Amino acid sequence: MACSCSPTPAPQKPNSKFRTALWIALFINAAMFVIELIGGAYAHSSALWADSLDFFGDAMNYAISLAVLGASLYWRATVALLKGATMALFGLVVIGKTTYAYVQGIPPEAITMGAIGVLALIANVISALFLYAFRDGDSNMQSVWLCSRNDAIGNVAVIFAAVGVFGTGSLIPDLMVALVMSILGLTGGYQVIQKAMKERQASKRINLVEECP
User: Fold this and answer.
1) Residue 3 belongs to a domain
2) How many Å apart are CA 212 and CA 201, to the nearest integer?
3) What is the rounded distance in angstroms from the CA atom of residue 46 to the CA atom of residue 112?
4) Structural domains of the chain, count
5) What stretches pass through the bilayer (predicted)?
6) In a 3-state reduction of DSSP, which class is residue 22?
């Protein structure tokens, strides 16, 4: 059977708007990582501590995404695969931290927790608005949108948890939010991994067609 060959598509031309959105999201997430890391330690909040790790992971993801803009589909999908695995790993780490906090039994300081939660929500809504337009792009674009979306959802939950801790004096609302954030990390990571694997396979098929005699 004759083999029909076609040229491999050129690497995606870097999207200047996407690049700008990534830089904005990178700076916002790096700043919030430091704020929540310090605030979470001060308030003894598992949810804030978990969210600070999420901000750090997102900042790294945005930096990686900037580095591969304009690369081939295969390499963009490969990086997205790594980011998806990182998101899922984050979910597992948060589950471990939540278990440890439950054993310790120290309730968080609700006022600090709530104030930082509101600040983090504002930061993530700004990031999400800049990245919303790229939610239906390739796996690399989808991964950064999912990171921002998950963070905004998590921050709303942190605020509700702070209210719950303030009203009950219990650490349970804080632990429940940390658990929800871990589930978001696991499910978001799974979505990105699935799409990235499909894109890698598609890229390999294109390369095989190009190599046909």
Assistant:
1) no
2) 17
3) 13
4) 1
5) 21-43, 55-75, 87-104, 110-132, 152-169, 175-193
6) helix
Whether the full predicted model's pTM is greater than 0.85, yes or no, is: no
- Inside any domain, residue 10: no
Could you tell me the two tokens for 87?
């998101």
Nearby residues of 154 by Cβ (< 8 Å), 6 or more positions away: 47, 51, 54, 177, 180, 181, 184
Closest by CA to 111, choosing from 179, 39, 175, 33, is 39
Q: Does residue 107 lie within any of the structural domains?
A: yes
- Output the six-digit token pair for 174: 């804080």
Please identify which residue in the block is written with the tokens 């001060």: 42
Sign of CA dihedral 171, 176, 177, 179: positive
pLDDT per position as a tens digit, 9-54 = 344 444 677 788 888 888 998 998 899 888 887 887 877 877 777 7
- Examine residue 144 and state whether it is found in any structural domain, yes or no: yes
Find out whether 45 and 110 touch, Cβ atoms under 8 Å.
no
Q: How many CB atoms lie within 10 A of CB 91?
A: 22
Q: How does pLDDT run across 73-88, given as a tens digit for each residue?
A: 677 777 777 777 877 7
For the segment 87-112, what is each residue's pLDDT rounded down to a tens digit? 778 778 778 877 877 777 777 888 88
